[in-house]
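Aim 2, interim progress: modelling of the iron/sulfur cluster-bound target.
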Amino acid sequence: MATQIPSSPKVGMVSLGCPKALVDSERILTQLRSDGYDLSADYAGADVVLVNTCGFLDSAKEESLDAIGEAMAENGRVIVTGCMGNEADVIMKRYPDVLAVTGAHQYEDVVTAVHAAAPAARGAFVDLVPEAGLKLTPRHYSYLKISEGCNHRCSFCIIPSLRGDLVSRRPDAILREAEKLVEAGTKELLVISQDTSAYGVDIRHQPRAWNGPNGQGREVRAHMTDLAAALGELKTSEGQGVWTRLHYVYPYPHVDKVIPLMAEGKITPYLDIPFQHAAPNVLKRMKRPANEAKVLQRVKSWRDICPDLTIRSTFVVGFPGETEDDFKYLLDWLEEAQLDRVGAFRFEPVEGAEANQLDGALPEEIKEERYQRIMEVTARISAAKLQAKVGRTLPVIIDDIGEPDEDGDIGATARSEADAPEIDGNVFLRNVSENLAVGDIIDATIEDADEHDLFGVAAS
Ligand code: SF4
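Predicted structure of the complex, ligand included:
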């Protein structure tokens, strides 16, 4: 008699917010999949819909509420989780029929709520889960979350009140997850947290045993440098090195120690440091360390050690009390620092943030005008930096491969080590081989550049 396979309940997922929220969604789905649930690509096929919300800015909260409203209208059986889940009263007031609301990182609570709303079918045929869990990013790159929360109290940010103080994961657990991801096809690891440089402070950098790729076994401290060095040892099954990219790094002195790892090719020469501003007066009001002159010296010394280092950063313009002189100071600082990639934001008050109480709020026209000016400066710097790469041969990772055109030529979209997925530029390749695959890392010769992207051809 044929084995009866019970049909599995289906879960729909709407994931909003930052890469950290995306990692949460992946973890929740991985757990649900291992509990016997199937995924639904649309509202109609779902027995229950999970909405993973973002509550960072007021505009993000409104977007989250709209997403909940859409899921309620289209399906009606909705569970809310994520940062905005910490404001259950606001959600329940607007949508009283939501089945459950859980806060950020309450994985077990979300999973329990799904089990209550749509009990899982169990059995040997439905309990399978891919070795690396379920991913919402393409197979060849993966976010690797190393800690939650933050010990800083920047005046414009409510993340510490939403997510609490820093809680670091054990280094052995992070490395095991990274190994599984690499075994499953990941070629690029994107290390994320709220403050990557502070990793391990809360657990006093306690070391844990790790076997390592050669099975030699050793202890790895819960410290950014040690973790980066260990991640830099990982290799694909073909023996190729894995790109390791550090995001959300605070420029503490010990960051100096990861630069030699970049110069030696062990980790990707890329640092994402959200400086936010440079003028001491503004940094003070933001409650961020005001050591911008020292930072400039350090950026210079990092580049002396690793000339190919790419520094990406974000800045807030129009912060309360930012004078024209403060803003010009920031522009001058940027000219000096020559950062490779810059994102800018116009200051937006976030409900509950201390900065809202500061005097000196600026009119929207000034914020807009300063935003346009900073974008002009940073686009010019970026264009010059990219132009300097024309003629060089650089390793690139393939993200997408096009269809042949009428002449049979195939184009591909790739990224260099200077480009993080989603936030930086691309390297557009012409005439690639038909044997090329997404996730391949190849050498490309750069032929042209614009303000954000490079254009080239596979090196022969
Ligand atoms: S370091 Fe980042 S997460 Fe922490 S309080 Fe400041 S802005 Fe928020």
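The longest helix spans residues 364-387. The domain at 393-458 is CATH 2.40.50.140 (OB fold (Dihydrolipoamide Acetyltransferase, E2P)).
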